[in-house]
């Protein structure tokens, strides 16, 4: 799908939505319309009642640089994703108690402003102002799994093709900036931790041993073939011929009921992983480690409630990842986000978001870059030498946005982003970016 054509179509959609004066429930732009294409004369809801749920959506994220960055020539870039899915309640369909199956196919396209304008092209990327970009412009089998519940669903077993942050290190996504959206591990250890849209073979089991506490453990393949992007068939590669090891996450989840914040919902996670795949030392080329590890903390809490509507109010999340210093370029990521749902009575489903997130580069990796430049005769930043390696430190990302929820089917999210030290290179000017996310559920 051509991203420019997709952008034009979505832009026309946005204009139509914003200029509409009135609508009725049976019109495409109705504010209570669940799906843009409707419920198929009631057949869609009937299918869901029978256990068949079908989804189709397009997410588009545009971004333009307002000031700063490596190349401050004003440019607009758009990235997009098409997702097609089906969920099957196998208890309703086949009588298999507490069993569901899911399949999702995705296609990404477009370009990233951060890669082409914001960062020094000689640097490896850290953040991205369009989180939807990445893992190739190909079709992918993103999910194909079965989940079975036991003992009144207090034990759940899942197996198949899936992303790792579907079940571990997961977090909210109320932002367009990469580090402020979703699970954090894939942003810093993407060679062994695969997030959406990549699907890998894996399995996990979760045990809810009390009403507030759940313990989960999983095993997922480490297979470089899963992130190949040369052709569309790479996204449907199901063999395990090139498996290098396994990533094993463990996570403890606490969902307090009445103990804090007047019983408002919250979720607190602490987790760790170990990968059995060999990992190169980050400071030298002649040392290989038997594996690598990471730790994380995810918290999300509703802080206030507006009136009698349980969904309106102030929410906060705080997420931290700490990686193996011996093998990982990004030592740590930290994220703090706030968003308020339903600030205006006339717009109860809209939200205002503000987030700040940071990549902290490993000192051992930075020292290696400095040593490489010294060996090539550079003792300071050179903006033109092709063999100069920009020294990377930390990168700070900030975003302010407004999510305009026209209906359950259509969402627009204009946003303003600030990037300090793009790709961690202090010699690159801080950048201001304007963005617009659009999501349409068909």
UniProtKB/TrEMBL annotation:
Keyword annotations of the record: Signal
Transmembrane segments annotated in the record for this chain: none
InterPro entries membership: Carb-sel_porin_OprB (IPR007049), OprB_Porin (IPR052932), OprB_sf (IPR038673)
Segment forming the signal sequence: 1-25
One GO CC term, this protein: membrane
Key word Signal present: yes
Gene Ontology terms describing biological process: carbohydrate transport
Pfam family, one: OprB
Highest taxon, organism lineage: Bacteria
GO MF term (any one): porin activity
Membership in a protein family: Belongs to the OprB family.
Stated name of the protein: Uncharacterized protein
């Amino acid at each position: 799908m051509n991203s420019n054509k997709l952008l034009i179509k979505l832009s026309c959609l946005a204009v139509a939505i914003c200029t509409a004066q009135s609508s009725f429930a049976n019109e495409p732009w109705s504010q209570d319309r669940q799906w843009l294409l409707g419920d198929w004369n009631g057949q869609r809801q009937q299918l869901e009642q029978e256990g068949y749920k079908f989804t189709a959506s397009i997410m588009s994220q545009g971004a333009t640089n307002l000031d700063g960055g490596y190349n401050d020539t004003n440019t607009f870039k758009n990235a997009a994703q098409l997702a097609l899915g089906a969920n099957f309640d196998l208890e309703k369909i086949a009588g298999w108690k507490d069993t569901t199956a899911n399949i999702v196919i995705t296609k990404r396209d477009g370009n990233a402003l951060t890669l082409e304008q914001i960062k020094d092209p000689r640097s490896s990327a850290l953040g991205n102002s369009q989180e939807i970009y990445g893992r190739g412009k190909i079709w992918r089998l993103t999910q194909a799994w079965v989940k079975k519940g036991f003992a009144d669903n207090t034990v759940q077993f899942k197996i198949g093709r899936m992303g790792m942050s579907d079940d571990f290190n997961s977090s909210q996504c109320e932002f367009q900036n990469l580090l402020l959206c979703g699970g954090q591990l894939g942003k810093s250890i993407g060679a062994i931790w695969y997030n959406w849209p990549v699907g890998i073979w894996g399995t996990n089991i979760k045990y809810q041993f009390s009403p507030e506490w759940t313990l989960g453990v999983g095993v997922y393949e480490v297979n470089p073939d899963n992130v190949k992007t040369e052709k569309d068939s790479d996204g449907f590669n199901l063999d395990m011929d090139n498996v290098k090891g396994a990533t094993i996450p463990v996570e403890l989840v606490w969902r307090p009921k009445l103990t804090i914040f007047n019983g408002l919902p919250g979720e607190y996670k602490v987790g760790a992983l170990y990968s059995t795949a060999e990992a190169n030392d980050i400071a030298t080329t002649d040392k290989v480690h038997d594996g690598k590890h990471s730790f994380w903390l995810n918290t999300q809490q509703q802080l206030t409630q507006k009136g009698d509507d349980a969904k309106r109010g102030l929410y906060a999340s705080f997420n931290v990842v700490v990686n193996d210093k011996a093998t990982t370029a990004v030592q740590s990521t930290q994220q703090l986000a706030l968003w308020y749902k339903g600030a205006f009575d006339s717009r109860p489903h809209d939200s205002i978001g503000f987030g700040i997130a940071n990549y902290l580069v490993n000192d051992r990796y930075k020292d290696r870059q400095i040593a490489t430049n010294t060996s090539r005769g550079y003792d300071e930043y050179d903006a033109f030498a092709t063999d100069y390696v920009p020294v990377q430190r930390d990168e700070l990302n900030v975003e302010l946005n407004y999510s305009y929820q026209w209906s359950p089917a259509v969402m627009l999210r204009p946003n303003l982003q600030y990037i300090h030290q793009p790709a961690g290179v202090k010699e690159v000017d801080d950048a201001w970016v304007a963005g617009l996310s659009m999501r349409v559920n068909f």
